């Protein structure tokens, strides 16, 4: 009997996302997907399907103008599947049809949700599905009520559903047309609050959401949730202050707005680089200092087990904590009275270095294929890696090779460089010996 191929969980995830992207590209190429009935070229369909499945939001065609309702629904479904993960969707069907979740399925779910153990993984998936439905439904209703003042009720409801799915999954796709995103609602409290709530809740991660919801009953929060909440809050506040200061006198962004508009604009533009992709200020009109600062925020990204990308807030926290521990002469990294294992620190450094090399390499490639300033190229590369979707205007001008490079970068960013390395690298083997310890001078 011939032995079948065995794939590791990272390899299954890579192949699963690739299949979904190709299927989405095929659907978007159909004439029914465009408003004019024309067939979308494969490279543009592939780029759009990759951007949607990898919940990025970079677009080469105006979603609200070029695509028909069918095409927009395909994009929305790709965003939903890509955001919560295709293994989560597969588990949903298994639960509906009362099929047993096998050990292999649990291993895949563990890898997809970036968990250290399989314990309680199916229970976590149930929570993921429940939280997604509740948060998206309530937000879609509020969006619809607000947008009903600007458009017919049916269209407002459709817009509400699409943008609730897009923003909660940190995708950044919008239907407002002319690549405007939320610039028309820069000072609107309802649109800002609901959008930021969706972006932050999707970016916190389902483990943190579960901890917050069950806090009253459990009266205890995990170390992971404490780190994510503290770092997320800090980055949002610091980001809003920096953008407010840099853009306060910029006549193309904050200066024409009222004080409330300036605050809403700064706050929203601090939240959205956490891999959301929506914008209420013209990114291309921001000062270079603000644009570079947003690059840093996009590189950090959201949190583990979330719908966002980047190196993740926990990774950044470990790096910062390790630096301060070394400065203070301490051998252990302690966060909230818990000591972190060296393995966690090594993993954080590995993820950061792989991500940094990837962004630099992509920026170098784009510098040879695209005719644009280096800052806009670096911004595009980081946005694609962090699955953010913000752009300084380069996306629509990309060459065919540039579209391919950005598509592959979005794919790598969604899965994570470490997952791709595990999937493409040789199988891990147990080390039977250790080398003698050596010493070298550092710094």
TrEMBL record:
Q: What membrane topology does the UniProt entry give?
A: Multi-pass membrane protein
Lineage top rank: taxon? Bacteria
Per UniProt, the keywords (alphabetical) are:
Cell membrane, Ion transport, Membrane, Potassium, Potassium transport, Transmembrane, Transmembrane helix, Transport
Give the record's GO CC terms: plasma membrane
Q: Where are the transmembrane segments?
A: 12-30, 73-97, 128-149, 193-215, 227-246, 292-324, 345-366, 372-392
Q: Where in the cell is it found?
A: Cell membrane
* Example GO molecular function: potassium:chloride symporter activity
Q: Name the PANTHER family for this protein.
A: KTR SYSTEM POTASSIUM UPTAKE PROTEIN B, TRK SYSTEM POTASSIUM UPTAKE PROTEIN TRKG-RELATED
User: What is the protein name for this chain?
Assistant: Trk system potassium uptake protein TrkH
Can you name the source organism? Fontibacillus panacisegetis
